[in-house]
Structure formats: C-alpha cells, structure tokens
Design goal:
Blueprint (H helix, E strand, L loop, with lengths): L33 E11 L9 H16 L6 E3 L3 E3 L2 E11 L4 H20 L15 E2 L6 E2 L13 H9 L3 H18 L2 H4 L3 H13 L5 H14 L4 H13 L3 H14 L7 H12 L8 E5 L11 E4 L3 E5 L6 E4 L2 H6 L4 E4 L7 E4 L4 E6 L11 E7 L11 E2 L8 E2 L18 E6 L1
Helix pairs in contact: 2-4, 2-7, 3-4, 4-6, 6-7, 6-8, 7-8, 8-9, 8-10, 9-10
Length: 432
C-alpha cells in the first residue's frame, strides 16, 4: 500500500531531501536509555539502482528512515545492503529516547508504534519518495530482548474497550495513548498472531489520531491502512479512510473508497459509514461519480447473481461470451416464465455491455439463448435511492467537515479480523 502525498514533517536534524553520503552519515545508534526498533527489510531491486553505490543507498535510506521515525539521523543505523536475486535486503535500526518523564516515555511509545508499523507492514513509507513502491515488504525474522534502564508500558493499563470509551467521550488523546500502549506491548512481545487480530485497535487509533486536538492525517492514514491489511472488508476503517481523503483533498481516492463501501454495504440496508462518506463528499462539493459494477453473466446460472441491489445512477457492466445475451423483460411474471423481452445486450456485446439505472424501482434481466433462462441465468435488479445522510444513532461524532453529522466510524469496528501473515520483523529492545 502506497502512502498518499503529505508535506515533510518538521523534525530537528532531519531533512526530507534526497540524501547524499554527507547528509546523514553512518553512525551508531545512541546509547542512552531508549527503545530500539530493528527491522530487516526486503525491497524490490529497483529500490537500489545499479548506478548507486552501497554507501549512497544506505545514506538515502538512513535519511528517509529518520524522517519516518521522527528522530534525528544519529538515532538511525543502516546496515550494508545486499542484492539477493531480484530483491535488496538491508537492516535498519531506529532508537527512541525514553527519557525520565511520563511525557517523554509516552512520546517515545507513540513514535515506536508508528515506526514499527511502517517497518513491519508498509516498508514503502521508510524509503525516499522517488523509490517508493507498493510491492515493498519486510522479512519475518526477529529477536526480542529487553534490559533494565528503559521500560515499556507493559502490560498496558487500559483495555481496547476502555480506549473506545475514551474516544466516544471525546478524550481522543487519551484514547490514542491507551491504544499505542496496547500496540507497543504486542510489538515488544513479538506476538505476530495478536497483531494480526488487531484491526479494531488500528482503526480506532487512526480515528483518535485524526480527531485529536493536533490531528496527524499521515499517521491516521497509516493506521487505517494497517487495519485494512488485516481485514480488507473492515467497514469502519474503509469509511474513515474515505473521510480522510475528503479532508486532505484526495477526491479521486475518496470516490474509490466510496465504491468499495458500496460493495461492502449494498442497499437497502447499506451502512452508516456509506451515508457519512457520501454526505462528507456532498457538502464539500465532491461529485460522487459513476459506479460501475462488473457482472460475470456467464456465471449467473441458478440465480447466482439475483437479486442485485444497487443505487440510482449505478451501472452494471455485463461481461459474457458470444453464447449469451442480455434481455430486459417487463415484470416479475415475465421473469418467472422467461417470456420474451427487449434485447439490450446482444451476443456480440459481451466484452462489456453497460446498463445504467436512472430510476428507483425493480428491473428484470434474462439470457434468451437456449434454455439459459430456464436454468436460472437471470437477475432481478433492485434500484434504490441514494442515502446522502447517515442513519440515526451513530455512536461517534463524525470527523467529516460537518461536525453535527454522526459518523459510522464505530460501525464494523469489531468485525472480526482476518489473520494475515506479517511480512516483517521488528525487534523492540529496551537498552540502558
């Protein structure tokens, strides 16, 4: 998953420009009390051009990793890169100063969670902008160790449910704190299985991070995308990500997210998140755009594609071979008896016959070839009105630009995460 465009964070001692060997020179990680994140990265070969020396590649990565970690260059160490087949392997270590106060310890914990998430699951975010690729991954080997002098907040003092209560009450900074503590403990324990069941935690962390008094839309995007890596159909994270795109002006991505929600939440029930996102787009002048849903018409026997529930303005794209056609029949009786109708998609249109639905109501389609209709190759299409405002009873305030609108953020929050193998290794080492 690629990151969308954000301005460079202002971090003392860190530059966002492409690094040269003298921008961010090699150095050992600081030895003061710290928490260290160590990751073994596996990158596509294109990330290290053949014209670039190992030193230049390491320097550029050191610089961009420091920006990603929100630390100075002296807190980052990069190993010697190696080419292996069509990949590049390299070790990266970032140290986060713990300090003596709760404030410094909390700040370190927050940065550790952000960097560990990038290093383990979105390696793309650690690279210079010109080298980013959504195919980047990291390895799955790690060692975890801890020593006296720097401690992590483990076990965490609050549960996920308590963090949600804080967020619902408007205490978003406290909610984010609680969630970062929960996640840093999962990272420290090396519990990949636990991390791969924490879509809800990442989703609410994204929400709380974006809803805080000083919101961070970049980190919010990171956490929503991590939630969706774990559970691709997570309705809450999908809706929130769409609202974030509206907020940051990425309107095309907002439309793509709305289309995903339409598939997840078909009418008539749809979902609160869909209404909220549609509303956020509407009040900000973002045209929803056409939604085209593909129908594999060849596979629609035995009523496999019926009923289809869509919204006014949506388009169905029928794709089929030349042994089929698409015929619109008059009513339910004609549908049941496979009566004759109007051929709207001929046998030669199957590379993609698009039919747009302009009116609320019910429409009926069959295949008139051979005994296909009698074998159930037919479809009832229920066309619903578009809901432009959310359902009543949303549990959390919206983070769209209309604060009086209730958000669907909590809907689908506890949808059951899908286990996914972690593609990286992060070692959290508390060192004196």
């Amino acid at each position: 998953m690629e990151r969308t465009g954000y301005p460079c964070p202002e971090v003392s001692g860190v530059s966002c420009a492409s690094a040269s060997t003298d921008t961010c020179v090699d150095s050992a990680v600081t030895t003061a009390a710290n928490v260290t994140v160590s990751a073994s990265l596996t990158l596509p070969s294109e990330a290290w051009p053949m014209t670039e020396t190992p030193a230049d590649f390491a320097a550029a990565l050191k610089n961009s990793a420091a920006v990603a970690a929100n630390v100075t260059c002296d807190s980052v160490a990069v190993g010697t890169p190696a080419r292996v087949a069509n990949t590049v392997t390299v070790d990266v270590t970032a140290a986060f100063q713990v300090g003596a106060t709760d404030e410094t310890k909390n700040a370190a914990t927050d940065r550790v969670v952000a960097f560990a998430t990038k290093a383990m699951y979105m390696t793309d975010w650690l690279l210079p902008a010109e080298k980013r690729s959504s195919v980047n991954a990291a390895t799955d080997t790690a060692a975890v160790a801890a020593s006296a002098g720097a401690t992590l907040p483990c076990p965490a003092s609050k549960t996920y449910e308590e963090a949600v209560e804080l967020s619902d009450a408007g205490s978003h900074e406290e909610a984010a704190r609680a969630l970062n503590d929960l996640l840093v403990c999962a990272y420290e324990s090396g519990g990949a299985a636990a991390l791969n069941d924490m879509a809800d935690e990442f989703n609410v962390l994204g929400y709380s991070t974006r809803k805080a008094e000083n919101p961070d839309t970049q980190l919010s995007e990171l956490y929503y995308k991590r939630a969706l890596q774990i559970e691709p159909t997570h309705v809450g994270a999908t809706g929130y990500l769409g609202e974030l795109y509206v907020q940051t002006g990425n309107f095309e991505l907002a439309r793509e997210t709305l289309d995903k929600l339409k598939l997840m939440c078909p009418p008539p029930n749809d979902c609160v998140a869909l209404g909220v996102l549609r509303h956020a787009m509407s009040v900000n002048g973002v045209i929803e755009g056409a939604f085209v849903r593909d129908v594999a018409w060849n596979d629609c026997y035995d009523l496999a594609c019926s009923p289809m529930n869509i919204t006014v303005g949506d388009t169905l794209n029928f794709v089929y071979s030349e042994t089929h056609d698409v015929v619109k029949v008059a009513d339910a009786a004609a549908f049941e008896t496979c009566a004759a109708g109007v051929t709207v998609g001929t046998t030669g249109d199957g590379a993609g016959y698009e039919h747009k639905f302009e009116d609320v109501g019910v429409e009926y389609f069959v295949c008139s070839q051979g005994s296909h209709c009698a074998s159930g190759q037919k479809m009832v299409v229920n066309v619903h009105s578009a809901r432009t405002t959310p359902s009543a009873g949303g549990e959390a305030p919206s983070y769209s630009l209309e604060p009086e609108v209730e958000s669907g953020a909590r809907e689908g929050v506890r949808g059951g995460a899908l286990a996914a193998a972690a593609a990286a290794a992060v070692a959290l080492v508390a060192a004196a």
